[in-house]
Amino acid sequence: MIFRRFATYFWFCVSVLAVGSCLCSTVHAQALIASASLPEAPTPAVEPVAPVVLAPSIASSEHRFFDKQNRVLFIAAAAFNGADFAVTRANLQSGGQELNPIVRVFGRSTAGLAVNFIGETAGVISLSYFFHKTGHHKLERAVSLVNIGGSAGAVSFGLTHR
Q1: Residues near 131 by Cβ (< 8 Å), separated by ≥ 6?
Q2: HSE of 36 in the Cβ direction (CA atoms, 13 Å)?
Q3: Is residue 15 part of a domain?
């Protein structure tokens, strides 16, 4: 029943996309022009140009890695990972099962589960540092936000399905 609705929706979207692309004039504007209709253009002379060397400058948006915003994000990520550990451990102790296949490998013991969540927090900080060093400052903060969201979702799911 659900698959049939999904298939109907999928084919509707495909047909709308096909009709829209056929009727769109910008798609046809990219067509190749026959080479016989082009006039003969003169070939410009190519002259060597000396390379321009720019000194690296420090961007004004450059910030320290452990600035206030990153510290708050890392503390929140560690807190939510700790809460996820506590809820997961309580659920496993009361006979529940781990739904995440990666964590399931570590979930056989409390120490293994703790290593998993500590490693997850260390991985978030390491990936954020990598993005910081490569100049991707928005991704640097996004890594922590995604981890916080995932852990918050796992905690809320674990608490509602006790």
Answers
A1: 137, 139, 140, 143
A2: 0
A3: yes
- Residue 106: which residues within 8 A CB-CB, separation 6 or more? 112, 113, 115, 116
At residue 50, the pLDDT reads 80
Query: What average pLDDT does range 129-145 have in this prediction?
Result: 94
Q: Tell me, what DSSP letter sits at residue 112?
A: H
pLDDT at 77: 97
Considering the domain architecture, whether residues 20 and 79 belong to the same structural domain is answered as no
13 and 92 share a domain? no
79 and 22: one domain? no
**Residue 139's pLDDT is what?**
94
Q: Please state, rounded to an integer, the average pLDDT across all residues of the chain.
A: 82
**Distance in angstroms (rounded) separating the CA atoms of residues 134 and 137:** 8
Model confidence, pTM: 0.61
Buried b vs exposed e over 90-103: b needs ≥16 C-beta within 10 Å?
ebbeeeeebeeeeb
Q: Assess contact for 128 and 70: CB atoms under 8 A.
A: yes
